[in-house]
Amino acid sequence: MSKLNSARDLLIHELKDLYSAETQLVKALPKMAKGANSDELKKALEQHLEETQEHVARLERIGEQLGESMKGKKCKAMEGLVEEGKETLEEEGDPSVLDLAIIGAAQKVEHYEIAGYGTARTLAELLGEEDVAEILQETLDEEGNADKTLTEIAMELNVEAGATAGEDDDE
């Protein structure tokens, strides 16, 4: 367990947590994409996998810049979110509704990352680490865009799921 005696210690702690979270996601996103029914959702998850791999590389560059290894911490929150995602993939039901469930699981992950990157960016700014803050902001923007994309896909799928539910009412 690390000691948090300074804002820099906290920044490194947050960065290591994000690094662990992102590396866990690199393993989980292909499974989510494979479980998706909608081609649009599959594509969005695959695209975010590429971004996530870049996020890992950025965190490694930040670690080098700060003279710190990003390894050594396990993000238990992401571990739990990934486990929930796995459970979602094991569900059975209407394909559009299952895709909505996958989107929900993915958005929980995005919101966790948005919170983490926002915290780390603010700490970097407080410490005068402007280069680090800019890199973190770039990732934060991408996480926000991924969340918006998932919302857009959910809105389209919700219309499909609603139409399917309406058909069932006639039977």
Description of the structure:
By secondary structure, this protein is an all-alpha fold. It has a single domain, classed as Up-down Bundle (Ferritin). Helices cover 84% and strands 0% of the residues. The protein has 5 helices and no strands. The protein has helices at residues 7-35, 39-66, 76-89, 95-126, 130-170. The longest helix is centred in the last third of the chain and has 41 residues, at 130-170.
Which helices and strands, and how do they pair?
Layout lengths: L6 H29 L3 H28 L9 H14 L5 H32 L3 H41 L1
Q: What overall form do the CA principal axes indicate?
A: elongated
Please bin the fraction of helical residues: over 70%
Q: Show unreliable segments.
A: none
CATH superfamily: Ferritin, core subunit, four-helix bundle
Describe the largest sheet: none
Q: Tell me the number of structural domains.
A: 1
- CATH structural architecture: Up-down Bundle
Q: Give the helices and strands as they follow along the chain.
A: HHHHH
Number of strand elements: 0
Q: Which structural class do the helices and strands define?
A: mainly alpha
Name the CATH class.
Answer: Mainly Alpha
Distance between the termini: 59 Å
Q: Work out the radius of gyration.
A: 18 Å
Quickly describe the structure:
This protein has 171 residues and is mainly alpha-helical. It contains 5 helices and no strands.
